[in-house]
Design brief:
The protein is an alpha+beta fold. Helices cover about 35% and strands about 20% of the residues. The chain has one domain: Glutamine Phosphoribosylpyrophosphate, subunit 1, domain 1, CATH 3.60.20. It contains eight helices and 14 strands. Strand 10 and strand 11 form a beta hairpin. It is globular, with a radius of gyration of 20 Å. About 40% of the residues are buried.
């Protein structure tokens, strides 16, 4: 499939032959060894040690959806990286938050971005949000062999559905099983603690500002009980990645915005270390 630099400079026939609008199908037909799921690991004893990303959270509000993640990657009991990027735009109206084996997860996100871009160029239209969620499910399923060797990737997918006019969230398991979540969702090692916080604080009438505050509160609670989740690091100016997706598209909060939001949460925790209280009734 490589171009012949000594010929006339024409593209290889593979690039000129009509086919599927799926980039994965194209790659699988012409260079299948490039797909992550087709790579073979050498024989190993025990669990493969590799950096892992941890907690990702998402919450809907009437105008869209917020997707956020902490910045810590761990390898065993060690902190492998303090400022890893875990939340990425998939296209103009959707984003992916990664948990699991960091290297494979980032590679999968890049392939997913290519998949959506390829479809749009071939078909001349964007894939529906439901279709995007299904494509990501297929990619996760293709990584099942790696997952069985301890190199699992379990992302959280969120976006603004322009057809329905609202934000939606999709979660996955290691086999590629897909579920649409109502109101909020979490994944990663601190997901149990983050979900507990979101369960108590969520309301149907959240504003965008309240939704972004909620995800920071949830990530703080996750970091409070899960050593693999990193809380706001004021000394190093490392704050959660917070993204908002509305009818205007994908937007990532700037560092100053994230710092101000995290700072307000930290200040409130000085008076209430366990966070805001939910009403009993």
């Amino acid at each position: 499939m490589e171009a012949n630099t000594r010929s006339t400079g024409r593209l290889p026939a593979a690039f000129l032959t009509p086919g599927s609008s799926s980039f994965m199908d194209f790659l699988g037909a012409h260079q299948p060894e490039m797909l992550p799921g087709n790579r073979q690991l050498p024989p190993v004893q025990g669990v493969v040690e590799a950096p892992h990303g941890t907690t990702i959270v998402a919450v809907t509000f009437p105008g869209g959806v917020v997707l956020a993640g902490d910045r810590r990657a761990t390898m065993g009991n060690m902190i492998a990286q303090r400022d890893i990027e875990k939340v990425f735009p998939a296209d103009e109206y959707s984003a992916v938050g990664i948990a699991g084996t960091a290297g494979l997860a980032v590679e999968m996100v890049k392939l997913f971005q290519l998949e959506l871009e390829h479809f749009e160029k071939v078909e001349g239209a964007q894939l529906s949000l439901e279709g995007k969620a299904n494509r990501l499910s297929t990619m996760i399923r293709s990584n099942l062999g790696m997952a069985m060797q301890g190199l699992a990737v379990v992302p959280l997918f969120a976006g603004y559905d322009v057809d329905r006019g609202r934000g939606r969230i999709f979660s996955y398991d290691v086999t590629g099983g897909r579920s649409e979540e109502r109101n909020y969702a979490t994944t990663g090692s601190g997901s149990v603690f983050a979900r507990g916080a979101m369960k108590k604080l969520f309301r149907d009438d959240l504003t965008e500002e309240q939704a972004t505050t909620l995800v920071v509160q949830a990530l703080y609670d996750a970091a409070d009980d899960d050593s693999a989740t990193g809380g706001p690091d004021v000394a190093r100016r490392i704050y959660p990645i917070i993204t908002v997706i509305t009818e205007d598209g994908f937007r990532r909060l700037g560092e100053d915005e994230a710092a101000e939001l995290a700072g307000s949460v930290l200040q409130a925790r000085l008076e209430q270390p366990d966070g805001p209280r939910a009403a009993l009734l």
